[in-house]
Design a protein that fits this description.
Blueprint lengths: L29 H39 L14 H8 L2 E5 L10 H7 L8 E5 L3 E3 L2 E3 L6 E4 L7 E4 L14 H4 L3 E3 L5 E3 L2 E4 L15 E3 L4 E4 L2 E3 L5 E3 L3 E5 L2 E4 L4 E3 L2 E5 L2 E15 L9 E5 L2 E13 L6 E4 L2 E2 L8 E2 L13 H14 L1
Parallel strand pairs: 1-2, 2-5, 3-6, 4-7, 5-8, 6-9, 7-10, 8-11, 9-12, 10-13, 11-14, 12-15, 13-16, 14-17, 15-18, 16-18, 17-19, 18-20, 19-21, 20-22, 20-23
Helix pairs in contact: 1-5
Bound molecules: 2-acetamido-2-deoxy-beta-D-glucopyranose (4 copies).
Length: about 350
C-alpha cells in the first residue's frame, strides 16, 4: 500500500470506530451515571447480538454436522466445528529448532522444508531462544504448522526487506513480498514468537512499506506474539484470524489488509513522529465478511494517531473496551481523502456475529 500522500482511492468507504474509554478515573457524578447507562445499553446490545448469533448458527451447525457425520453417531454440542482441524490436532508431531545445532534443525526454514506437502498433522516447531535472521514463507500446501517459542525468552524472527528491495527476479518485491514471515497456509498458530522488520519509515519517502508478518491463510491464531515494524508491520491479509495478548508496534498503517480478525487484550503501540493512521482495513464491498475488531486492548504511543483510515470502499474496524491514550485524535478515523466514505454506516451487530463465528472456528 502507498504512503499517506499517494494514490487516491476512488470508491467510497466506511469505517466504524466504537471506543469505550476507561471509566476508572471518573468520580461519582452525573457524567458517570450517564456513562454507566451507556455502558449498560452497550452490554445489552452486545448480548442481544450474541444470542441472535447463537440461534442462527446452531441450526447451520446441525445441518453441516448432519452432512459430515451422516451414518455416524451425531456428536452433541459444538465439539466438531472443523473436523479437519480436529483430526490434525489428534495426530501431533513435534520438532525442534535451535541455532546451536543441539536440535532437529538449525533454522526454521529447514524445519518447514522437512514437513510433507499436503501435511495433515499438527506440526509443532519448538523454536529455541535466539535471533533468527530468516525470510520465511510457509507454503499453501503445508497447513497445521505451529511456531512455539518460550514465553520467558521468545525467539525473534527478523528481516529488513521493503517493498522496494530488489528481489531475485530483478524487480521490487512489493509490500506483499516484503514480509519477514509470510504464511500462506491454513491453520497456522504462533505462540510466544517475536516477528520483526527493522526498516524504519521515513516520512515523505515512497515504498518504505516493510512487513514483519503477512498472514494470508485461513483460521490462524497468534498468542503472546510481538510484531515490531514501522510502516505496514502486520499484514492481516485475508482469512479468519485470532490475536490474543499480542503486542503490535508500527508507525503507519501498521495493521492492514482485509482479514476478518479479532484482536483481544492486545497492546497497540505507535512509534509515529507525526500524524499517522494505525489501521488500514480493506473491505471493498458490502458483501464481504472482512473487518478488524479490537477488544479489551490498549492504544498508546507517540505522534498523533487516527485509529484507522479506510482502504476499501466498505472498510470495517471496531474498537471496544479499549483504552486509548491521548495520542489518538478525537476524529478517530480518516477517510483517506474521500468524503464519500462517510456516507456508509453499517450495522455493528453483523460484525459481532462474524467475529463469534471466527472464534468458534479456531
Ligand atoms: C497435494 O494435494 C493436491 C490437491 O489435492 C494435489 O493436486 C497434489 O498432487 C498433492 N501433492 C502431493 C505431493 O501429494
Ligand atoms: C539488511 O540486513 C542485512 C543483514 O544484516 C545487511 O547485510 C543489509 O545491509 C541490510 N539491508 C539494509 C537495506 O539495511
Ligand atoms: C502467555 O504469556 C503469559 C505471561 O507470560 C503466560 O503466563 C502464558 O502461559 C503464555 N501463554 C502461552 C500460550 O504460552
Ligand atoms: C464483492 O467482491 C467480491 C470479491 O471480490 C466479488 O466477487 C463480488 O462480485 C463483489 N460484489 C459487488 C456487489 O461488487
Amino acid at each position: 500500500m502507498a504512503g499517506f500522500s499517494s494514490t487516491p482511492i476512488h470508491i467510497s468507504i466506511f469505517l466504524l470506530s466504537l471506543c469505550i474509554l476507561s471509566l476508572s478515573s471518573l468520580s461519582w457524578s452525573s457524567s458517570r451515571s450517564n456513562l454507566e447507562r451507556q455502558n449498560d445499553d452497550y452490554e445489552k446490545w452486545v448480548s442481544w447480538n450474541v444470542e441472535n448469533h447463537k440461534k442462527k448458527t446452531s441450526t447451520t451447525w446441525e445441518t453441516k454436522q448432519g452432512m459430515v457425520t451422516a451414518g455416524h453417531r451425531k456428536r452433541s454440542g459444538r465439539s466438531v466445528v472443523d473436523s479437519k482441524l480436529r483430526r490434525a490436532d489428534l495426530r501431533t508431531v513435534r520438532m525442534c529448532v535451535s541455532q546451536d545445532g543441539s536440535c532437529d534443525f538449525a533454522s526454521i526454514r529447514e524445519a518447514i522444508d522437512s514437513i510433507p506437502v499436503n501435511n495433515t498433522r499438527r506440526t509443532i516447531l519448538d523454536i529455541k531462544p535466539g535471533l533468527y535472521r530468516e525470510k520465511i514463507v510457509v507454503p499453501l500446501a503445508k497447513p497445521f504448522i505451529t511456531f512455539m517459542g518460550d514465553s520467558q525468552n521468545p525467539p525473534t524472527i527478523t528481516g529488513n526487506d521493503t517493498a522496494s528491495t530488489i528481489g531475485d527476479d530483478g524487480r521490487p518485491l512489493t509490500t506483499f513480498h516484503s514480509a519477514t514471515v509470510a504464511v500462506n497456509s491454513d491453520y497456522f498458530v504462533a505462540i510466544n514468537v517475536i516477528f520483526e522488520n527493522t526498516v524504519p519509515h521515513v516520512t515523505g519517502t515512497l515504498a518504505e512499506q516493510a512487513v514483519a508478518l503477512r498472514i494470508s491463510g485461513n483460521k490462524a491464531a497468534f498468542y503472546n506474539c510481538t510484531f515490531y515494524g514501522y510502516q505496514d508491520t502486520l499484514y492481516d491479509h485475508k482469512g479468519l484470524h485470532y490475536f490474543k495478548n499480542c503486542f503490535i508496534q508500527g508507525s503507519v498503517d501498521f495493521i492492514f489488509g482485509y482479514g476478518r480478525s479479532l484482536y483481544e487484550t492486545c497492546y497497540l503501540n505507535s512509534v509515529a513522529t507525526k500524524v499517522a493512521s494505525m489501521t488500514a482495513q480493506k473491505r471493498t464491498n458490502s458483501s464481504l465478511s472482512s473487518g478488524f475488531s479490537f477488544k479489551d486492548s490498549v492504544v498508546t504511543g507517540s505522534g498523533l494517531l487516527y485509529l484507522g483510515r479506510a482502504w476499501g470502499d466498505r472498510s470495517r474496524v471496531i474498537f471496544s473496551y479499549t483504552f486509548m491514550d491521548k495520542v489518538v485524535l478525537s476524529q478517530g478515523w480518516n477517510d483517506w481523502g474521500d468524503q464519500n466514505r462517510e456516507r456508509y454506516v453499517n450495522i455493528l451487530g453483523q460484525f459481532i456475529e462474524a467475529l463469534l463465528e471466527c472464534l468458534v472456528s479456531i
